[in-house]
Write a structure and sequence with these properties.
The chain starts with 6 loop residues before the first helix and ends in an 8-residue tail after the last strand. A hairpin with a 6-residue loop joins strand 6 and strand 7. The protein has 2 domains: 56 residues, no CATH class; 134 residues, Beta Barrel (Lipocalin). By secondary structure, the protein is of the alpha+beta class. InterPro entries: Cap15. This is CD-NTase-associated protein 15 domain-containing protein. Keywords: Membrane, Transmembrane, Transmembrane helix. It comes from Mesorhizobium australicum.
Length: 222
């Protein structure tokens, strides 16, 4: 999530953590000579680095987000956990002009469960369609905080696999999504668009809309 912060803000946070670590080291060691000063600085650097690593790679960060809710708007919202997923594609419009597809039989709406794992350093998203028809995992996720408006987005590249594909499907294809986080709604929602290269050689590559609604208490994490 740190990628959503502007560089000056990120630098200030790192310096603040370093300063607190230095104060703590000074109080513990209470140096009186150059050797003591060197130990103090070394202790502070090690302590600050350890704190950042533990905070960034463990669920501990969620404790801070719960104690200080403003972090959801200042840094990035806590979106970890399970979300009910609905996608609506343009496959019906494609089918109207495609000889291999019947507009009356294509599946326009797809439902499933999106699981998001989030840490300060990374976000991953995985989708399981209802009935295990298809599954998607992200290869790349970038959190975005829009300058000026303060709106939050995630953009992703994903890989979809369909174990038992229909004639219009591919067993595997790639796609991308651009989703806005509407964390202040009750329940929280995310909305956006997606597009894929599914069966693009036959002119069946799809696009559409995505809607996610939080389906469970916040959990998950890297």
């Amino acid at each position: 999530m740190y990628q959503a912060l502007e560089k000056p803000t990120l630098i200030r946070i790192v310096l603040a953590i370093g300063a607190l670590a230095l104060i703590a080291a000074w109080l513990v060691i209470r140096p009186t000579d150059m050797t003591g000063y060197a130990r103090t600085v070394s202790f502070a650097i090690t302590g600050a680095a350890a704190f950042i690593m533990i905070l960034g790679t463990s669920p501990l960060w969620r404790v801070f987000w719960k104690i200080f809710p403003f972090l959801n708007t200042w840094v990035f919202p806590n979106i970890s956990g399970e979300w009910a997923f609905i996608a609506e594609s343009n496959i019906k419009e494609i089918a109207a002009f495609h000889p291999d597809l019947d507009p009356a039989k294509v599946k326009v709406r797809i439902r499933g469960t999106m699981t998001i794992r989030q840490s300060l350093f990374a976000i991953s998203m995985s989708l399981t369609g209802d009935g295990d028809y298809s599954m998607s995992d992200t290869l790349f996720v970038k959190p975005i905080k829009e300058a000026g408006t303060g709106r939050f987005y995630v953009t992703s590249v994903f890989r979809n696999s369909t174990p038992h594909p229909q004639p219009s499907d591919e067993q595997m294809h790639m796609g991308a999504a651009y989703i806005e986080i509407l964390a202040t709604r009750h329940p929280p929602e995310m909305k956006g668009v997606y597009w894929t290269n599914r069966n693009w050689q036959k002119g069946m590559n799809t696009a559409g809309t995505i809607k996610l609604t939080r389906a469970s208490p916040k959990r998950g994490g890297a």
